[in-house]
């Protein structure tokens, strides 16, 4: 029976990988023929991927897909957004339902090696933390022994939480929900003492409380959570397009190319800027795109810094400082290979 079960698991993995590869090889052609990029996003996380009352999506994860739309189709609005739960997200990508998954998803070895998927970079460096009500009277995660903890199913946070409490010799009671909205509602209703997730999500979910000031994020960060867009394995061209679209935004910020000045930069004598915006070299051709692919990205979506500040920066309700997500030239770890 054990050998039979193992064979079933291995067979399912093989089917998933082969299905993924079959869809992957046709991605760019399918996107061009369809006239839109199909992007998997969250069911609603302010600052990352969240719809407004009219159904218009915004957020840093949304802008990753809009940037790919600008690069491939010349129009950042040619994107269809598909809301997915944490449990649904990988299957939707493997099956070809979506072209890109851009849904606050952590890059791990297991996900990168056994699901038939490739992570195309990191658009947000994060770490898992804890959100508590201020009236709970705790100021550190080390004081959470015996706490009940709200957590979303199908995420890396489940294992991180178990590891942290076991390492600290503490006990906890998990209260598991399927979606982030259900998780924050459970926390708000008093179903648990603590809500755990990536810190970026905690700041976003806190804005959904009736009184956001009643809760605070504890200082401890218990994991590394590099979040980024994901594509299917088996299609190196599409993988390169998504990867270099993000790299183009990072390089644009480093070079001082913005939404406001990208047109003026077309007369720049800086070789790096000329290659970026397509006035010199054949960078677009190497990717199977138009020469001005990156110029379209910056003009319509912005460089990385503009994308960050617009969605999650200090002038937004989330008020997140750049921190690790600052460029390497400004004390952070965001660093892109050169376009040359």
UniProtKB/TrEMBL annotation:
Gene3D superfamilies: Periplasmic binding protein-like II (3.40.190.10). Residues 36-260 form the Solute-binding protein family 3/N-terminal domain. CDD domains: PBP2_BztA. One of its GO terms (biological process) is amino acid transport. Residues 1-24 form the signal peptide. Keywords: Signal, Transport. The keyword Transport applies. Belongs to the bacterial solute-binding protein 3 family. PANTHER family: AMINO ACID ABC TRANSPORTER PERMEASE, AMINO-ACID ABC TRANSPORTER-BINDING PROTEIN YHDW-RELATED. This is Amino acid ABC transporter substrate-binding protein.
């Amino acid at each position: 029976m054990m050998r039979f079960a193992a064979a079933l698991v291995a067979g399912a993995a093989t089917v998933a990988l082969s299905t993924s590869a079959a869809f992957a090889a046709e991605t760019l052609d399918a996107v061009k023929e369809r006239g839109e990029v199909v992007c998997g996003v969250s069911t609603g996380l302010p600052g990352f991927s969240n719809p407004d009352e009219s159904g218009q999506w915004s957020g840093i994860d949304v802008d990753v897909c809009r940037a790919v739309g600008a690069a491939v189709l010349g129009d950042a609005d040619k994107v269809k957004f598909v809301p997915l739960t944490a449990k649904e997200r990988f299957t939707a990508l493997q099956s070809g339902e979506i072209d890109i998954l851009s849904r606050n998803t952590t890059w791990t070895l297991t996900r990168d090696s056994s699901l038939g998927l490739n992570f195309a970079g990191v658009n947000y460096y994060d770490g898992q933390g804890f959100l508590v009500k201020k009236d709970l009277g705790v100021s550190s995660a080390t004081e959470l022994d015996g706490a009940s903890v709200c957590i979303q199913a199908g995420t890396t946070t489940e294992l991180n939480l178990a590891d942290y409490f076991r390492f600290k010799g503490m006990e906890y009671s998990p209260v598991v929900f399927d979606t982030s909205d259900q998780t924050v509602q459970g926390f708000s209703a008093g179903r648990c003492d603590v809500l755990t997730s990536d810190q970026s999500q905690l700041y976003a979910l806190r804005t959904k409380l009736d009184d956001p000031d009643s809760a605070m994020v504890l200082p401890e960060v218990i994991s590394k959570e590099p979040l980024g867009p994901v594509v299917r394995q088996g299609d190196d061209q599409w993988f390169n397009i998504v990867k270099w679209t993000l790299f183009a935004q990072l390089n644009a910020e480093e070079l001082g190319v913005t939404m406001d000045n990208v047109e003026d930069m077309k007369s720049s004598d800086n070789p790096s800027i000329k290659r970026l915006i397509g006035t010199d070299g054949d960078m677009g051709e190497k990717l199977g795109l138009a020469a001005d692919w990156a110029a379209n990205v910056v003009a319509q979506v912005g460089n990385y810094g503009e994308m960050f500040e617009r969605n999650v920066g200090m002038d937004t309700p989330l008020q997140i400082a750049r921190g690790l997500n600052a460029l390497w030239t400004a004390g952070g770890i965001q660093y892109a290979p050169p376009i040359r």
